[in-house]
Design goal:
The chain is mainly alpha-helical. The protein folds into two domains: about 100 residues, no CATH class; about 45 residues, Winged helix-like DNA-binding domain superfamily/Winged helix DNA-binding domain (Arc Repressor Mutant, subunit A), CATH 1.10.10. Helix content is about 75%, strand content about 0%. It contains eight helices and no strands. The radius of gyration is 34 Å and the shape is rod-shaped.
């Protein structure tokens, strides 16, 4: 079955098969577009679909190209040829962009599971190690390393001396290093 027959079956008769509406007397872009839609639209959609292999997206691409004519005020001498080229270029650009996005997602997907799994495992291990600390050590470590609180502020908040906070931090670091299998320098 030829493409014109396929197009006719999917969308009804081609525009050239329907009676032409009366043209306005203004002779402006509206008339040019009306003539294009009546005389060339179906063929242009078919050519764009054949040229790009994207038959389903061809009609949208042709409509987008027509919108460009209306939006930017461009008035090509041969509207059908211009719309065809713009629609083909638009579909090719979308195809290139989609392929680039797919490659980027593929690269992320290949690297992310191991990284994400390791990060999740590390977070669980750290949380478990923090849970094993004494309350004083855990509070000092969390305030100092997670909230960036200075030793003096921690001491004032807990009502202890700065030396006590420093001792709690030192012992907390040692316990965390041992629990996480790291050697503290």
């Amino acid at each position: 079955m030829n493409d014109a027959a396929t197009l006719t079956m999917r969308r009804g008769p081609l525009m050239a098969d329907t009676p032409r509406p009366p043209a306005p007397t203004s002779g402006g872009i509206e008339e040019t577009i009306r003539d294009f839609v009546h005389d060339e639209y179906g063929r242009v959609v078919m050519v764009v679909g054949q040229a790009t292999g994207q038959h389903d997206a061809a009609e949208d691409a042709v409509q987008d190209a027509l919108l460009k004519v209306l939006a930017d005020g461009h008035r090509p001498d041969r509207l059908g040829a211009w719309v065809t080229v713009v629609a083909i270029n638009g579909l090719r650009a979308r195809h290139r962009r989609a392929a680039a996005e797919a490659r980027a997602v593929d690269r992320i997907d290949r690297s992310q599971p191991a990284d994400a799994a390791n990060a999740a495992t590390d977070r669980v291990a750290v949380l478990e190690a923090l849970g094993a600390l004494s309350e004083g050590q855990r509070t000092a470590v969390l305030l100092h390393y997670y909230l960036d609180s200075p030793v003096a502020d921690i001491a004032a908040a807990l009502g202890v001396t700065e030396g006590t906070v420093k001792t709690q931090l030192h012992r907390g670091r040692q316990a965390l290093a041992a629990a996480l299998g790291e050697v503290e320098a």
